[in-house]
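Researcher: Please translate sequence to structure tokens.
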Amino acid sequence: MKILFIAIITVGVSILALVILGIIIISIIRAAKTGGLSKNEKDIRAEETRMIQDIYNALPKMEERVEALETILIERGHQNR
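Model: Translation complete:
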């Protein structure tokens, strides 16, 4: 009876260990495929990337506008003298 009890416990622990190992392996594979990010996190990062690219692409126009304003202010300063 004691041997049967030990055998049942051993089999139960073995099955539990296999299940846990399987969950760990599946989690690792899933993380490797998705880069460790959920779909929502990927969408958020993609939106942030688009916003940063838009800002970066708009910077030359902003620089031109600032230079134009500086020119206007300098010309007005010379006219007021």
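Researcher: Any highlights?
Model: The radius of gyration is 33 Å.
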